[in-house]
Amino acid sequence: MRISIICSNVLHPIMPYLEAWKKEQQSSSSRVQIVSESADLSSGDILFVVSCSEKITQHVRHRFRHVLVLHASDLPKGRGWSPYIWDILSGKNEIILSLIEAEDQIDTGKIWKKIRIPVPNHFLWNEINHALFQGEIGLMNWAVEHSKTVVPMEQDRNIQPTYWPKRAVQDSCLDINKTIAEQFDLLRVCDPHRYPVFFEINGQKYKLILEKFDEKTD
Fold this sequence. Notes:
- The protein is of the alpha/beta class.
- The chain has two domains: 2-161, Rossmann fold, CATH 3.40.50; 169-208, no CATH class.
- 24% of the residues lie in helices and 25% in strands.
- The protein contains five helices and ten strands.
- A six-stranded mixed beta sheet has the order 2-1-3-4-6-7, sandwiched between helices. Strands 5-8 form a two-stranded parallel sheet.
- α2 links the parallel β3 and β4.
């Protein structure tokens, strides 16, 4: 099987998971390529769209038998950007991960499969990432195994779609007048390397890094 993966940022934290998956697939005779731009895509059986900021045009999609998007929301709810971050900030304790077909209109494609990923209220950004990325790899394995037998389902038209905006820098800013408890979800979802949480006081910005502390080991 010829498989391609497009992930826009080569430094995205999911990349090690994708590279490991590529090795596993190639050991079972599949050919896998990972690219960061659609211009570098060839053709094949499956194209996985993972953390991709580029719209995959119909011209590119026609080169593949299946073009599948991994989207972390319970579609048709939560279309748009960083849906699982917004969900956790709104109090959710799980991620619904959807595997859907790519279409011209973003996040509207037929659904292949959904899975639930628990997110305990003590998980920090790296633990959330690990749970999510493992779920994405699991769905990719499922897609490869069931690509010839799957019966995709239309998104439920009886459910009113909702949309999340792209997160901006200011969305990671703490309110110095609120308690830690009130803002703990924001503290724990922000990647300190890519989207650090910060606060502003006395004309200056200060970055915060949150880590779990175990007195027995630290």
